[in-house]
Records
---
Amino acid sequence: MSILPPGDDATTPAAPPPRRHLPALDRLLRDPAAAALIERYGRPALATALRAELDRLRATPATALRPADTAAGAVLAQAGERLEAAARPSLRRVFNLTGTVLHTNLGRAALPEAAIAAVGIVAAGPSNLEYDLASGARGERDDHLEPLLCALTGAAAATVVNNNAAALLLVLNTLAARRQVVISRGELIEIGGAFRLPDIITRSGCRLVEVGTTNRTHPRDYAEALGPRTGAVLKVHTSNYAIEGFTAAVGEADLAQLCRVPHVPLVVDLGSGALLDPRRYGLPHEPTPMQAIAAGADLVTFSGDKLLGGPQAGLIVGRADLIARIRRNPLKRALRVDKLTIAALGAVLGLYRDPDRLAERLPAWRALRRPLAALHDQAARLAPALAARLAGLATVESGACVSQVGSGSLPTQGVASVALVIRPVGRRGAGAALRRLAERFRALPVPVIGRIHDGALLLDLRCLEDEAGFAAQLAALRDAPGAP
């Protein structure tokens, strides 16, 4: 007599694991639901995604699988999610609410509408990048920017490469390869990403000659270092830090006088590259290329995407004979900019011809000039809606904070600002909760990047121009991953 429960007859075969019922790849590709995916992503891409999903299911323990997981519709849906994730651009727009206006990691200067339109025009088809329309002969891509740069800086000639480090590398390699470059010890800076000026000088094929001390360098220090092996004297604007107290430095005019008799070129690296005096907008003075040229510098290098407010580029202005030598250097071709950069930079430089309206048209300066009253009003509009979305998770209030220019520009000068101050509810695990809140904002359709400070997540409003776009996506905030 059997003692097995009904239905548990020893001869009844066990139900097969769900993965035995996985549909074949060719069947999935013929499924009506696959047609839309093929239309959007292509048959080869769908086949690859389906293979990956089938492999995942085969590797999953049978006890963790349900029959619904192996259905054709479920497999196709998972493959579609894979394809959508793969098709999403890695480089995306974000909201920069960090309080750093020119944030290196977030793309530095936002381009003005004029530059965006100029890029669109030349990106859409052929252009006269290196073609002289008047003569019908080959042209020079520098011709699109040189007249503007010379008019704005007072230089005799100009050329452009892909960033300021490249500009300095090219200048030194042209003027002083296998020769000496004299520089003050107090100007041997380190720039972003742990790149150091001495390394750039060495890579340019030059020998570094340090003079003076970290805090004090005098004209006699340079004079004693100049000799027949000197290829250039380099003066670097220490834009990303400041030394205060017992200090001394030699200005461009005095250095130009020292370099004149031995005919040694004076190169001035300004880094951030302001084409107007920031005091115009209530910020401290920043040296300009115009001042360096007027003081007697032979060549000046500076960035396009910092205080200038344009695309990433390295600008070189100065003596015509030296610029001609730079253009003949084979490295110039390796470091040249493309048509999109030329279009954007040309449009930005064009805005400087009307300095009275520059701050209205250039996003970087527009952000720096936003009045506190406007930021307080913006915070008052946004805080209630944000608090409602984070109810039970965090509190939201407006508070005073300090923004900074960023990208090594005006490092000691803060700009008063207003932030949305977000604090997680409860004190236990506050640090982890803050990190999860920050993750939640980064997971929004347009990621929001703030900063954690003093036990709160701050969303600095100085750079928030698209208030409507920011507010519209708050509805997705509770559904974003990273819940505290």
Note: The chain has a mean pLDDT of 91.
---
Amino acid sequence: MVMAAIMLAFVAVAQNKMKDKMITYHKIQIEDCNVFYREAGASDKPAVLLLHGFPSSSHMFRELMPELAGDFHLIAPDFPSFGQTESPDREHFTYSFDHLAKIVDKFTEAVRLTRFAMYVFDYGAPIGYRLAMWHPDRITAIVSQNGNMYDEGLGKKWAARKEYWKHPTSELRQQFASAFELETIIGQYTFGTPENSVGPDGYSLDYYYVNLPGRAEMQNDLILDYRSNVALYPNFQQYLRTYQPPLLAVWGENDPSFIPAGAHAFRRDVPNAEIHFVPSGHFALESHHAEIAALMRKFLAKVIK
């Protein structure tokens, strides 16, 4: 009888651990969008909001979330015009980073995230940094994976984009549509990564999503509006200097878009920031999710009380 009870207890513990690591999938109405999101981990654990980049979706966290779900409550939404979230018509919905950040802000309130750490990457970074400026009291920590807020962190390709922002002609807008081509997306995933370390799943799914009807023009709107993020860099930096949030920068060191100087620059505003590099590219989770999860777990355990 005693052995049977012990065995049942072990089974119950194992089942609870498996349940914690299980990812569930949901939708919730925010303004004109039915927002899709992934969730994992018990709701009484410290919360982490995961904000994806371009041209991806919350799918990019498919391997990270089970690694962390035993210790944290993880929520990862798809932005409007990304992944499984609805994409309202451009005639009735403004595709700007400020508007996407407001949608995510309302989303956090709808799912009752009152205090949370943020994992920000690429496009998710300026969205997350806006949330931090608007609600500094809600942010327990920031994990920036190639999530830039410094001019020196912009790679060479941004020179052409800055010219486009100054002179946004229809011809240049069409040229930047190359960002949605399969070869370009594959390059974003594989450049600078260890050989044969990136599977085709992520970039194949991204290519499918960005080519859904109407999304190319929505994404083009965001490429042009990215200039609003660069204009806000001084404001983001002032937020860091004022509030000194615990900050971990973990960077794919071979990323041609957001180069290592952007990670080092965080220490200028947050002297205690932790800076780490992994031998990968832009989508570092594709090849190094276990290493990044380990760094996050150790860091967040120290700073979230």
Note: The chain has one domain: 21-303.
---
Amino acid sequence: MIIDAHCHAWAHWPYQPPVPDPASRGSAAQLLWEMEQNGVERAVVICAGLGGNPGNNDYVAEAARASGGRLIAFADVDSRWWDHHHAPGAPARFRAELDRLRPIGITHYVDETADPGWFLGEEGDACLALLEERGVVLSLACGPLQVPTVAKAAERHPRLTILLHHMGRPRAGDGAALQAVLAGAARPNIHVKVSGFGYGVEEGWAFPYAPMQEVARALRDAYGADRLCWGSDYPVVRKFMTYRQSLEVVRSLCPFLDPAERAAILGGTMDRLLTRASSRGR
């Protein structure tokens, strides 16, 4: 079983420069086609209401309903592109979106250079407590140096599952950033997506990203394969590589993984997290 733990779908292509096919390049139909061609059974679609897509939560929720269980929507709540990001009243906004969409997971993007103290403050703590209470997975986009603060928040909420995006976002060769991400392994409820290989190197086209494979190895050593999940980052990943390459960089080109570890990262870990989230009341 292969489960894509991190991909996107948009009604309109959100990035610059403009593309000739903005209505289809990021569509759910394109994602499902790529999954079919590459033997991917299910995919977690990380909603992101950016770039002229304020209704992305609803677009992805409808695509998930129509997919027969192949797509799982993680709603975008209070991410950095919204005017109300981390403004007072966040717990009420979190609760309203959870009540409206009933997701098994949400995503929350923060400014990777900002002070992460919000997570430990009254409002941030209340938001995390709500997610923990409802059994909702938190898919979190943060910077590597913010991970130690996130780990403190994870300690306060041990039943909250946190999934860090794109290996925690360290760049190859940045030892301090990598060590900050590895420190998060002390909290058993923090998991990491093995995705975003192209973000961590100067030449994003330089497949198969040997320096980032070493980052993936360090994550395996610290977290264990049962806390790592593969993600394609499709369709954004097309900037760097094909969907097939995003899969093979883990399945075929990380020689330090044994078959059991590879199976966990490619689907076993995410299947367990989704099953657990689905079984809890939301």
Note: The beta strands are 3-7, 42-46, 71-76, 105-109, 137-141, 162-164, 190-194, 228-230.
---
Amino acid sequence: MITLEAAQESSFFIVTSMNELKKGSKKLLNAWAFYDWANSVYTLTIASSIFPIFYSALFLSDKKVVTAFGYDFKSTALITFVTAFTFLVVAFLSPILSGIADYIGNKKNFMKFFCYVGSAGCIGLYWFSLDRIHLSLLFYFMGLIGYWGSLVFYNSYLPDIAYEDQQDSISAKGFSLGYIGSVILLIINLAMVMYPSVFFIEDNIDENGKVIETAAQVAMRYSFIMVGIWWAGFSQYTFYVLPKGASSGHKVTKDVIFNGFKELKGVWRELKENLRLKRYLYAFFVFSMAVQTIMLVAVYFGEEEIAWGSDEAKTTGLILSILVIQLVAIIGAVLTSKASSRFGNISTLIAVNFIWMCLCFYAYFMKTPVQFYVAASLVGLVMGGIQSLARSTYSKFLPETEDTTSYFSFYDVAEKIGIVIGMLIYGFIDQITGSMRNSILFLFIFFLIGIVLLFRVPKK
């Protein structure tokens, strides 16, 4: 067994508690990628499908108002504001966590902490209730913080465990595992919601024989527990194999904590000398703000604004729409990649933004489930494409530098701040006008500005 000091001196070896693994070894790479299998169930079940449906079902059709923090909120506006606040916290914490991850050795404990906070938040959603709305929103906050917080340390492991020529393939493998795992659990949850009696789930009935909660709603609560257990349980293999991290033996100081912000400030100064990258970032900030907002509120919009006919049809239709988006997104990413190789990245992004702009108009007028399915298909087509192409375009525009971590940290923080602004604007319009249709139509402006800014990006 080699010593920890020896491991630090050679990047070729990484020491785990039980054995020695070479950097780039298959077992080490697979263990890292497997965390995507563990945590991706949060984004699909909690953030995108089951929880939005469950949350909307808590409100009567004629009264979708909830009192929280001393104010009366429209139900969808409240969850939008809470999501925006959470991403604001994430945007602030990300540079701090990145700086610590780069400096301190035991990054696995940080990753574990956020993983367990997130999984506990998911399990806590089982008790989500309007009667205890503040505690319920805390559980929602914990899930979101846990997911994004753990990703900071998860991503920082990549250069430690994989050589440069392995990073693209193992990152893609992680994405694939996450997609497969999350879809499997979502299908199980969908079966539970559609056929609760098969899983011995019954209506929640009070002592007077009145139905307090349908079996489908009870099944949704069970799905939150399953997500939390899946996330924490499957991550154990990753935690067992991954090393603590190449420790420098130094303690975390004030300078270390704020080092991430210093790096972001340095990137901002360098951007002034890189006109193409700076203008592209302006465009990305604007159109990403609208894209991320739509993806976060799509199910809430479909639940409230579409005439499904019955609660059962609504639940099934919304979950199937999410599955359609996931499947079509893969096709969209491939088509966008081919289009960018033929027409160029900026031209392709302009075209994709135009499609998003048209979608905002279409969404304002759609009312039927069929129209919603069409919108879901189009969203999936451009969702996967714009996300992958936006990041790869940014990567191509980077200057000659070895400090790509700081540049991508800047990129991620810009994206999170954009989400905060987009969600706040969306929630404010929803709260004031009482309709999410007005909010979705307003996002048209951001795509239009994004297109204008993309035209201003220099070719060289």
Note: Residues 276 and 458 are 5 Å apart (CA to CA).
